[in-house]
User: Which sequence fits this backbone?
């Protein structure tokens, strides 16, 4: 693969002392001004979005259906989260232990998939959570956000949303996104506080 001059890329290291060395022999004199990018085709199955009318920024995480994936963090295929340096950006990530990811590969052979979330709002207020793509395949029939403390479930199928009031700079780790092959009865779209 060739990385054009000026195009950035990420490297993920397992420890804090890792370095990346690109020798002079790896450089090329090719004058290609085209940036490498993903194909225009969709490269995920579900998109989970957090947004607010009080905050100009939003955050998205994605789910990829993969029969080879596990229900845990799959190193090498799940994409780790890198915090934005821009102040005020809300974040929602999948979390497995101490690993936060923005793209989670899941095995669709499971009847129910529970993906723990970590939610942070930089600005206090109401945030909207939306799911896109659930009905584009026949893998799952319903989705909901569950409050792991109260066990309340909030339906978030295609075309539905859940609104949560979030305090600024507080981490919420008591929610999970759940996909189910069974149909569930829609519950409230507003999380009570």
Assistant:
């Amino acid at each position: 693969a060739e990385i054009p001059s000026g195009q950035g890329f990420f490297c993920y290291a397992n420890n804090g002392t890792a370095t990346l060395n690109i020798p002079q022999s790896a450089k090329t004199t090719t004058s290609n001004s085209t940036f490498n990018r993903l194909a225009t085709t969709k490269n995920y199955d579900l998109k989970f979005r957090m947004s607010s009318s009080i905050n100009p920024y939003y955050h998205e995480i994605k789910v990829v259906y993969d029969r080879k994936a596990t229900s845990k963090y799959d190193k090498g295929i799940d994409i780790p989260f890198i915090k934005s340096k821009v102040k005020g950006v809300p974040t929602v990530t999948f979390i497995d232990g101490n690993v936060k990811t923005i793209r989670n590969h899941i095995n669709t052979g499971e009847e129910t998939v529970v993906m723990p979330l970590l939610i942070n709002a930089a600005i206090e207020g109401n945030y909207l959570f939306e799911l896109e793509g659930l009905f584009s395949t026949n893998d799952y029939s319903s989705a909901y956000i569950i409050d792991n403390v109260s066990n309340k479930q909030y339906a978030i199928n295609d075309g539905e949303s859940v609104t949560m009031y979030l305090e600024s700079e507080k981490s919420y780790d008591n929610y999970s996104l759940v996909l189910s092959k069974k149909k569930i009865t829609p519950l409230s779209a507003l999380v009570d506080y």
